[in-house]
Write a structure and sequence with these properties.
single chain, mainly beta, about 240 residues, 16 strands, globular, four-stranded antiparallel β-sheet, about 45% strand
């Protein structure tokens, strides 16, 4: 994009196939400088780690490692990390939960171990994406078909899902009934939701950063159907 976080100025550049690792990629995340990429595979129930010799340039990616989450959920979909990569979070639709993992080395999935889980079943049945605000005191889960909404949770301890409690939700069904991923700009005044049915990224404006009760559709979207008709991950 020519203007940061302005999807109206977005243009397709390239792709990187992960089919050798998993034929059902869903979630997508990067480390801080873009030298590592992480893909959640729903076929193999694992997180796949890739090294990028040039940050955020997927043409330079190569597979390095994998970490299975099958013991927790057989339908992992969304992925997020805390700031230094010492915590990883997976949204799983099989057991309707967000799972927390500790990494002894930041952004190295080979050092991951399961620590905790948080059920979102009271709000939705099919969580597909998860993300946090900057300090981890807010968590956002997007879910398809059962509410078609972004759900906001507050955490009394940053990036500790055992301290999470539901706050509010925001429906995106007017734009897409199959939202699959959610992301924010740096200060939370812009929210981006990926819709698998319409094959597009939709932009929402928040008058109060990271408060979905203040969100409204910005009437801006970016179609990716020329590349993919069932997009599932966004970063």
């Amino acid at each position: 994009t020519s203007i940061p976080f302005d999807i109206s100025s977005a243009a397709y550049t390239q792709n990187f196939s992960v089919a050798s690792q998993d034929t059902g990629p869903h979630g997508l995340a990067f480390n801080t400088d873009g030298t590592k990429m992480f893909v959640v595979g729903k076929t193999g129930d694992a997180v796949y780690e890739y090294a990028l010799t040039t940050g955020f340039d997927v043409s330079t990616a190569s597979f390095t490692d994998a970490f299975s989450v099958a013991a927790q959920d057989t339908a992992p979909e969304g992925i997020a990390f805390n700031t230094d990569g010492t915590k990883m979070f997976i949204a799983g639709s099989a057991n309707t939960s967000v799972y927390e993992y500790a990494l002894s080395t930041g952004f190295d999935v080979s050092t991951a171990s399961f620590t905790d889980s948080f059920s979102v079943s009271t709000q939705t049945a099919l969580p597909t994406g998860v993300t946090f605000n900057t300090d981890g005191t807010k968590m956002f889960v997007v879910a398809r078909h059962t509410g078609d909404a972004v759900y906001e949770y507050t955490l009394s301890t940053g990036f500790d899902i055992s301290s999470a409690s539901f706050v509010d939700s925001f429906s995106v069904s007017a734009q897409d009934v199959n939202p699959s991923a959610v992301a924010f700009n740096t200060n939370g005044t812009a929210m981006f939701v990926l819709g698998a049915t319409g094959g597009a990224v939709y932009e929402y404006a928040l008058t109060t950063g990271f408060d979905v009760s203040t969100a409204s559709y910005a009437s801006v979207s970016f179609s990716v159907v020329s590349q993919e008709t069932n997009p599932l991950g966004l970063a």
